[in-house]
């Protein structure tokens, strides 16, 4: 729905000409009013108590009954009542409470009770959040008209070769060749694609387009 067909045409033309930024989608950040990336940020800062609070505290958009349980725990700190009233589907909340009952005040221990896959999801969400910001900054500062000098791009000269080649070219004394071999063997060949920094020569030859531009995922 738009104000006019002209607006729709402009949007479609822009999509045809420039494509779209391949952002991490909303699913990565969860549907709750406390996004998973905020929890991930507190975990990376080592703020264990804050992370526990973000997971347990009342939150907007949740049903009144559930928020009542959260409010009661925040006000009274009654773990037994909270465990009894938190539904089993809230895995992280229940795991934290059960561990706090065993180790009162030990928030790191409480967080470690969350299943590892869920703990990693918090951190991966923050990685994705940072990547999305980096992609927006790249587009905002330099536009989407094409590759600029300094962009990181998929290497076109040797598409079949992998990161092993790049590492040896960098002449990194700390790189262990056998470790790189193992890394290469554990990935399907099509997933290993070399990257390079676009230079002035690449721009003159117009070797790369915006579709070749990539950004590293912080980790």
Automatic annotation (TrEMBL):
One matching Pfam family is: TruD
A GO molecular function assigned to this protein is: pseudouridine synthase activity
Q: Report any one BP term from Gene Ontology.
A: pseudouridine synthesis
**PROSITE patterns, alphabetized:** TRUD
The protein's matches in InterPro entries, at most eight in alphabetical order, are given as: PsdUridine_synth_cat_dom_sf, PsdUridine_synth_TruD, PsdUridine_synth_TruD_insert, TruD_catalytic
Alphabetically sorted, this entry's keywords are: Isomerase
Q: Which residues form the TRUD domain?
A: 19-219
Q: Name one cellular component (GO) term.
A: nucleus
Instruction: Report the sequence similarity comment from the record.
Output: Belongs to the pseudouridine synthase TruD family.
Name of the molecule in the record: TRUD domain-containing protein
Species lineage:
Eukaryota, Viridiplantae, Streptophyta, Embryophyta, Tracheophyta
